[in-house]
Amino acid sequence: MALRLMDELQVSGRRVLLRLDLNVPLKDGKVLDDTRVREAAPTVRALLDRGAAVIACSHLGRAKGKPDPALSLAPVAGVLERYVGTPVRFVPDSVGELARRAAAELRPGELLLLENLRFHSGEEGNDPEFCAQLAALADVYVNDAFGTAHRAHASTAGVAALFPARAAGPLMAREIAALTKVRDTAERPFVAVVGGAKISGKLETLKALAHKADTLALVGGMANTFLLANGVTVGKSLVENDLLEVARSVAADASSRGVALLLPVDVVVAANPDGPPCTVATSDVGADQMILDIGPLTQEHIATVLAQARTAFWNGPAGMFEKPAFAKGTFAIARALAASRAFTVVGGGESVAAVQQAGVVDRLSHVSTGGGASLEFLAGVDLPGVAALME
Ligand code: ADP
Ligand code: MG
Question: Exactly one of 198, 207, 248, 363 is catalytic; which is it?
Answer without folding.
Answer: 198
